[in-house]
Structure formats: structure tokens, C-alpha cells
Amino acid sequence: MKKSLIAVAALAAMSAASAQSSLNVYGVADVIIHKDDVRGEPSKPTKMTNGGVSGSRLGFKGTEDLGGGLKANFLLEEGIDLTSGAAAGFNRQAYVGLGGGFGEVKFGNVYTAYDDISGATNPVFDSKLAPTSVWKSADYISNPGSNIYYASPSFGGVSGAVSYSLDGSKNAVTSVHVKYEGGPIYVGFGYQDDTEVATAKFTRLNGSYDFGSFKLLAGYGKTNETVAADSTDWSIGADVPLSANLVLSAGYASSKADGAQRNYGVAVGAAYSLSKRTTVYGGLRNVEGAKDESRVGAGIKHTF
After folding, report:
1. 3-state secondary structure (DSSP) of residue 78
2. CA distance 151 to 177
3. Which of 45, 72, 79, 249 is 20 to 30 A from 6 (CA-CA)?
């Protein structure tokens, strides 16, 4: 009888623990086939590249309810190259942290606060077809390692985050963002200082407004260099839903370093949702300036 009671108690404890914690497996499989040409150079062969819209990955994330509104969270995310099948360990993100009414704090290999908002309004789905490939303010360190990251809760649509990688890590980086999301409006501001390990500080301001029939996209970036010329970036674009499953996106982006030639890109693309998890996409981009080049490509993205 005692053994039966002990077994029942053990099962009950296991059931309660299961109810208070969770583990999810997720991922993205995304690949694009594209043809690139550079003016004045021999024709380049058609190429397959991993991650046309989103980097392919396999991830594990979980949470445990600690009571009183406090939760323990973890995430392990490995990048996978679909062109070769190679994986690089949990190189995308790997962290543990705590969340609650105060927001969330993460410890480990976490993307910076600047990275969170960097591509939020880039035209053509912030993809490898996007015109913002010319931007200098995209050359920041996104994933410095040994990072302490704090994200606040939302206060009337306003939220923020700050991150800092500890001295002695592979890259010491300070980063912050503030954003507003309410109804059709999005506005984000970010700043990152890479000068402890590199040569630049980055500022980003972007925003969008959803008119219903289309979403207007705009972005501005500034790169302040310690050993080279500063540069200014900006972009404008629009996402236009043509049907419930089809979105057309187009945009223009510019980047100019002080005293140098302006680089600019023009691009147009479309994405068609075959289901909630599978999308095919394609488009073309033309870049002119220091190097004139074009790209046309198409890809497929599946999430699970």
C-alpha cells in the first residue's frame, strides 16, 4: 500500500512539473537560387545561398514557471547551411535567463539590442534581395558573445532593451534600442558602440505605417568611424498585399560616406504563402555606385 502511494505521489509530482515547464523544438529552412552580375566583369554562375529571407536554423526553447510570475527561460539555436547540410553548433543564440513583470534578462550568446530593430523596416523582406545591401550601418557586430541583455515590458506600446558583452568576451559591445508599436504605427531607434573591438558606432532610426492597402517603410542609419569617413544611409519602400497570400515589396536605399561616391540600390520582390508555414519568394535588385551589380533570384522558406 505504501509503495502504491509513493508511486502515485511520484506520478503526481512529475505531472505537476510537466505542467509548470515546457520545451519546444522549432526551426527555419530557407534557401535562395540567384544569378549575380557585376558590370565590367565576366558573367558569374548561378548560385545557391542559404537563408534568402531568414537564416536556416534548428532551435530548442523552454520555460519553467517558478511561481509568483517569475519564469526561467532558455534558448539554444544552431545555424544550418542548407547548401551543404553543415551545422555550426549553437552559434546563433544560446542563453539562459529570467522573465516576469519586470521584463526579461538573458545571459549568454544573445543578439544585441541594436540588432533587434536593425532590419525591421528594410524593403523586400530584409532579404538577400533587399536594396539595403549598400548600407554601411549594417556592418555592426550582431552577436558578440558573453552578452547580458535586458528587455523591458511594454508601456502603452513603448518598450526598450539594452545589452552589453562583458570584457574578456570575443567582442565587447554596448547596444540599446527603444521602440513604439501601436496599431498601424511602428517606430524604432537603436544605437551600438563597437569601438572597443572595431572602429565604428552605429545609429539607426526606422519606422512604418500600415495604411491597410499598403505599408510604408522608411529607415535612416548613421555610422561614425574612428579611422575612416563617416557615412549616412537611408531607405524608403512599401509592402503591398495583392491578395491574402501574395505580397509585393519594393524599395530604394542609399549610402554615402563623407567625400565618397554615393551607392544606391533599387529592388522589387514578391512573396507568396503556400501555407502558414511555407512561402516562395523572388525578385531582383540593382546596385550602382562604387561597384555596379545586379541580382535576380527566387527561394523557398519553411518554418516549423
Report:
1. strand
2. 9
3. 72
Give the span between the Cα atoms of 301 and 279, in whole angstroms.
5
> Which uninterrupted H or E stretch holds 36?
strand 21-38
Over residues 119-164, the pLDDT tens digits come to 999 999 999 999 999 999 999 999 999 999 999 999 999 999 999 9
**What gap in Å lies between CA 30 and CA 112, rounded to an integer?**
23
Gyration radius from the chain CA atoms: 22
CA angle at residue 70 from 65 to 72, to 5 degrees? Answer: 60
Convert the pLDDT of each residue in 283-295 to its tens digit.
999 999 988 999 9
Is residue 49 within 8 A of residue 295, CB to CB? The reply is no
Gap between the Cα atoms of 194 and 226, Å rounded: 10
- Among candidates 110, 107, 118, 98, which has minimal Cα distance to 177? 118
What pTM, to 2 d.p., does this model score? 0.90
Show the 3-state SS of 122-184: CCHHHCCCCHHHHCHHHCCCCCCCCEEEEECCCECCEEEEEEEECCCCCCCCEEEEEEEEECC
Displacement of CA 179 from its chain's centroid (Å): 15
The answer to whether the beta carbons of residues 120 and 206 sit under 8 Å apart is yes
> How do the residues of the chain divide into helix, strand and coil, expressed in percent and rounded to 5?
10, 55, 35
